[in-house]
């Protein structure tokens, strides 16, 4: 969540678990799913857990086909998620969602295998970032090499993270940790694009609009 939850009240927060002080027992954890919906899903997927259901939902929301089909609805309402039809499809999607979650929390081991280079030494000052032929120039002499165009132009929400991160540091000199972090971002964005295509190869969308769906805000 961002600061607007406190300043403007314009952000919705859906935690996976709630913690209550219950009869003197502090930090009693309750799963934040509607019990009836969760029980219904458990009939189709007996080994479902709150975490795997979260990952399933996360994968669905990153499906390009899902976003395209429901684009108009997503502009005005909370997402609605198809009920899992069988354990195989559920776990295939949950696996992809877990991989995305690890990338977006910057926890995945994949992030420690950079795909970009930073070959030229200098003062490391970010002057005017620009993309040209697989290179992202931060100043006249220094650049990151082997940057996939998909990562440079990738949108998450209304932002292009690879570009925004550098632009926010205009006039600053990158440290070694900064350089490594940006390279991790590029891996995360590139892998996200790849996994999104893999999600779309899984047949999970309902054949008709009338099929029952999970209401995401529940």
Supply the number of helical segments: 9
Q: Report how far the terminal alpha carbons are from each other.
A: 18 Å
Give me the Rg, rounded: 21 Å
The count of DSSP E runs of length 2 or more, i.e. the number of strands, is: 7
**Strands of the biggest beta sheet: in what spatial order?**
4-5-6
Shape: elongated
Q: Please state roughly what percent of the residues sit in beta strands, choosing from under 5%, 5-15%, 15-25%, 25-35%, 35-45% or over 45%.
A: 5-15%
Mean pLDDT: 90
Main pleated-sheet profile: 3 strands, antiparallel
Low-confidence stretches: none
Percent in helix: 40-55%
Helix-strand makeup class: alpha+beta
In N-to-C order, the SSE pattern is HEEHHHHEHEEEHHHE
Q: What's the number of structural domains?
A: 2
What does this structure look like?
With 218 residues, this protein is of the alpha+beta class. The chain folds into two domains: 4-109, no CATH class; 114-197, no CATH class. The chain contains nine helices and seven strands; from the N terminus they run H-E-E-H-H-H-H-E-H-E-E-E-H-H-H-E. Strands 4-5-6 form a three-stranded antiparallel β-sheet, with no helix packed on it. Strand 5 and strand 6 (143-144) form a beta hairpin. The radius of gyration is 21 Å and the shape is elongated. The relative contact order is 0.15. The model has no long low-confidence stretch (mean pLDDT 90).
